[in-house]
Amino acid sequence: QVQLVESGGGSVQAGGSLRLSCIGSGRTFSSYAMGWFRQAPGKEREFVAAISWSGSSVYYADSVKGRFTISRDNAKNTVYLQMISLRPEDTAVYYCSSRQGRGGSVYYTPAQYDYWGQGTQVTVSS
């Protein structure tokens, strides 16, 4: 069982920045591929970014490419999502997710992940 806890959400103005963190439990964190998803009110959960277990591969949704950066520190059991140039349409609850990883594989659908955090709210005002 893996437990994930997100932090770092908040309210910012358009153009601002935030860094989300997700701390995972367990000694096997480094073997897990990680992902970030978000869900706005009335909308389905959508993929944001993913990273392989080693950090060698990353993948982004087109809507955040060039503005968001996913990274991980396996020594700290933590994955990060650095967000810059935030837009009102980035407003959502952001969720961290994990699953056993294979090589440099990244995963970008909710069904591919086994564990989820409770989410952290990001609100961007215009």
List its salient traits.
126 residues; mainly beta; seven-stranded mixed β-sheet; four-stranded antiparallel β-sheet; 48% strand; globular
Task: Please tally the helical runs, counting DSSP H or I stretches of 4 or more residues.
Answer: 0
N/C terminus separation:
40 Å
Structural class: mainly beta
Strands, count: 11
Choose one word for the global shape. globular
**What low-confidence regions span 5 or more consecutive residues with pLDDT below 50?**
none
| Rounded Rg | 13 Å
Largest sheet data: 7 strands, mixed
Mean pLDDT: 95
- Please write the string of helix (H) and strand (E) elements: EEEEEEEEEEE
* Beta-strand content: over 45%
What share of the residues lie within helices?
under 10%
Verbal overview:
The protein is an all-beta fold. Helix content is 0%, strand content 48%. The strands form two sheets. Strands 2, 4, 5, 6, 9, 10 and 11 form a seven-stranded mixed sheet that branches. It has a four-stranded antiparallel sheet with strand order 1-3-8-7, with no helix packed on it. Strand 4 (32-39) and strand 5 form a beta hairpin. The protein is globular. The mean pLDDT is 95.
What secondary-structure arrangement, pairings included, does this model have?
Blueprint: E1 4-7, E2 10-13, E3 18-24, E4 32-39, E5 46-51, E6 58-60, E7 68-73, E8 78-83, E9 92-100, E10 115-116, E11 120-125
Parallel strand pairs: 2-11
Antiparallel strand pairs: 1-3, 3-8, 4-5, 4-9, 5-6, 7-8, 9-10, 9-11
